Amino acid sequence: MKRTIHLNDNTQISGTVDRFFKVRPIFTFLNTMFRAELQTQKQSVDEVMVAYKGKTAGNLRQYIKNKPDKWGFKLFARASEDGFIHDMVLYQGKTMLQAHGLPLSPEQEAMGSTSQIVSVLASTMSSSTITAIFADNFFTSLDLVCYLKDINCRYTGTVRENRMGKPPLKPVKEMEKKIVPRGTIDYVSSDDGILVVRWKDNKVVTLLSTDMGVEPVSSVYRYSSEGKRKDEVRCPAVIKSYNTNMGGIDNNDILVHLYRTPMKSKRWYLRLFAYAIDVSLTNAWIMYKRDCKALAEDTMPFKSFKIQLGR
After folding, report:
1. Residues 239 and 251 occupy one common structural domain
2. Of 162, 126, 169, 121, nearest to 143 (Cα)?
3. Structural domain containing residue 189
4. Which of 119, 184, 227, 240 has the fewest CB atoms within 10 Å of its CB?
5. Residues 240 and 162 in one domain
6. 122 and 254, same domain (yes or no)
């Protein structure tokens, strides 16, 4: 069966900038289908690693040390909060977005490369005006937040020190001192509604957001090695929102890893073909669970009515 798998016309490969030419048609088809499905109002953007340890793919094979699959093909994906992946960008270096097939506007071209990825994935959402995007500090920049705000799309993400401008916040080194208690919050908001908040947990975390504010401040519990107990720590609302909604890609990744399609081959692109099967099955399972949940909610009034009649 593997000998008969053929995904694209090899006579068209000369002159193309697409290094994933071999599997591009199936990923283009899947992206088109996935974008058409129901999208929740909380979307997350993150990296996905498709495991591959062979060497025939050259530098298309990437390494990320904090992923379960450290070696493999790197994808950038956008997913709903339940884990349904709606769009995927295959990483291949400078020509990545050109091969993806979506042209960049002048505003997008002025951004950094990682922020461009989020802007491209956001452009394929069914309704950006009622959607909030969550991403980590690999993608977040002040330029990205301003761009999304201009198209009425809300955003929340952790941010690196050199990508957030120069807001008047306490320095990270000062907040890291032991005399500063865990749960300390420092924040500032611009006139156009961009919030920068810095919060001390086990480490100091900085976020940019146009979706949530600091209030209401709630509590989380953290273990204290000094007191040998869990202490109550103040936590801003934007941090809780980020932690709750950032896990869409991870949820999908867990389901994909449960039953991966075995596809050992010297042809590197067959590993991506196997992932296309896996992500399709996972998305189908999530759609099934959505339908079951919707059906249960629709029939709930009738169930309670029967129970009352039985009494």
Report:
1. no
2. 162
3. 137-244
4. 227
5. yes
6. yes
218 located within any domain = yes
In a domain, 7, yes or no: no
Residues 46, 245: Cα–Cα separation, whole Å: 12
CA pair distance 47, 1, nearest whole angstrom: 31
Residues shown for the chain: 311
Write the pLDDT tens digit of every residue in 91-137: 998 889 888 888 888 888 888 899 999 999 999 998 888 899 999 99
Cis peptide, bond prior to residue 216, ω within 30 of zero: yes
Per-residue pLDDT tens over the stretch 136-148: 999 999 999 999 9
**Residue 83: HSE in the Cβ half-sphere, 13 Å Cα cutoff:** 19
Per-residue pLDDT for 309 more than 50? no
**Dist CA 112 CA 108 (whole Å):** 8
Q: Which two tokens stand for residue 305?
A: 């009515």
What the block records as the tokens of 280 is: 């399709």
Residues 54 and 145 in one domain: no
One domain, residues 124 and 141? no
